[in-house]
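so my prof wants the structure for this chain in the tokens format not the other one, which i didnt know existed until like an hour ago. anyway here's the sequence
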Amino acid sequence: MIDALEFGKIKQWRQSFWSDLRPALVVTRREVSDTMRDWRIVFPIVILVTLFPFLANFAANEGIDFVNEYGANLIIERLFPFLMLVVGFFPSSFSLVIALETFVGEKERGSLEPLLATPLTDRQLYLGKLLAATIPPVLASYLGMGVYLALLNLSMGWRPDPELLVLAVLLSSVEALVMVSGAVIVSSQATSVRAANLLASFIIIPMAFLLQAQAGFLLFADYAVLWWIAAFLVVVNILLIRLGVRIFDREHLLGRDLDYIDLSRAWRTFRTAVLPRRGLKSLYVEEIPTLLRAMRSELLITFLVVFVGGTLVGVWGAVKFPLPEVAVDFERLSDVTMIEEGVASTGLLPVFSTEAVFFNNARALVGGALLSIFSLGVLGEMLLLAPIALIAYATLQMTPLGISPWLFVTVFVLPHGILELPAALIATAQAMRMGDVILEPPDDGGGVTGIVRELGHFVKLFVALVLPLLLIAAWIEVNITPQLVVRLFGQMG
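here's what i got, hopefully its the right format
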């Protein structure tokens, strides 16, 4: 009985899925047909698919000839997979151009109204446009990688192993879909193609950084991390598609004709968001707790990405690149002056002082917030993930030296980190909120007005909460943490 009931639910869900997908595929066929007839889109894709693989193959051959003189064949061979990803990435990047034209381009050409008058639901229309912007560039990406691999096989006899081939195809597909999902949201919210193209920097910049990160992992042939990146991109795709379906509204799209900058309104919004409403007591008792509750989801995501993700990266680094025992010099921990000189010698700080540590941390969080605006919050998260990964990496190096990792964290990190890390978490979470609010409709508090408002909230939290915590943490890091380190680890030298 239960099995029959479950089967009935699955059958009902499948029928509902196909009933939604069939009308969407009608839109997809229409859009793909129009795209393939537009020589301004087809011609660059054809050029990239036919000429760029030959160029990449030529670069690979020249690289092999060059490194043969120095016996560094392994290095250039590790670049073959990266060139394969690049060959696949360039055609798929045209999905960004096509996606930006999906709604706002048709609106400018006057062909949007008949399409919106069809009996399609908003979800069917949105999914049809999404698939249409994805299919041609992704197929061109597959073709480009195929041509490149065929040339590489003929010229040098190199073939990728099956895992690498599947991974390259998967990464190329999910990266294209991420760009399309983000660009379709931008196109549905922008009022002109020019505005949509300007907003495209929020998509292309993080994807360019991601491609550089993939190059590093391919150089070390570490495919496990690339699988994690692919899984992360799949999750981002699901979130972006759900967000796009939720905020798409055809009436709202037709009703907007022009975006304009109202500086006086923007200033009023910023001032209202940044200034305390009823004095300092109300600020700390009511306003700041309200702001923290409002960004619960951002705090959770930041914690998972930065602390959990950073720990996993640190564990991977400790297993992959363990430090030799001679690399840890306990003699430098036997005196506070030597610790201060060691920190200054790294070049990260001009001098190991409370002011230097405070301004360095504050500057890093402000920089992360600025990067978050241009990357939907991604780059701010990555900037904070790096030190967490280093802490996890250093902690795991203590076990082979006979030192308890918990003792290491308690002495080196917790005295100042118990204040510094929550401050960084709050600032980064608010920066993420500031970066992704642009994807919400203006009527729901998003858009440019939303950015100005969340910028005011960021300044309020930063000045009233984050900076005091960073200042106290910096004083502890300079005056207390070194003393604890000397007491517990100095005698090991």
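also thought this was worth mentioning. The mean pLDDT is 75.
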